[in-house]
Amino acid sequence: MKQHFQNLVEEEEATIDMTPMLDVVFIMLIFFIVTASFVKEAGIDVNRPEASTAAAKPRATILVAISDKGEIWINKRKVDVRAVQANIERLKAENPQGSVVIQADKEANVDKLIKVMDAARAAGAYDVSIAAAEQ
Prior knowledge:
This protein has 135 residues and is α/β, with parallel strands linked by helices. It has 2 domains: 2-35; 50-134, Nucleotidyltransferase, domain 5 (2-Layer Sandwich). 39% of the residues lie in helices and 19% in strands. The chain has 4 helices and 7 strands. It has helices at residues 2-13, 19-35, 84-94, 110-122, and strands at 50-51, 60-66, 72-74, 77-79, 99-104, 128-130, 133-134. The strands form 2 sheets. It has a 5-stranded mixed beta sheet with strand order 4-3-2-5-6, covered by helices on one side. The chain has a two-stranded parallel ribbon with strand order 1-7. The radius of gyration is 26 Å and the shape is elongated. The mean pLDDT is 77.
């Protein structure tokens, strides 16, 4: 009987309480969800020109698209060329380290591209790139 009681005590001492570990796992999950950066899209598909020196831009957070019809899209919204600077200033305030990438269609007007680049620089974004497809 004494041996049986001693076995029960040893079994109970060997169990591990999982509640604190589950609390830590849920806190870590919430932390990773809150701090994750999500991919933002400009709003339209653009037929980008090809370039042999194209390189990936991992920290591009402000995407501006120019369609072949001259439409400008930021955050899935069509934007007038006069409102590009204000939109980029707002996005730059949300993420100061973010760079601006302009996704211009290869049939897009070069004048529109230059106006968007000027507006981005006027908004304080000096890291402005033009997206191209790799050859």
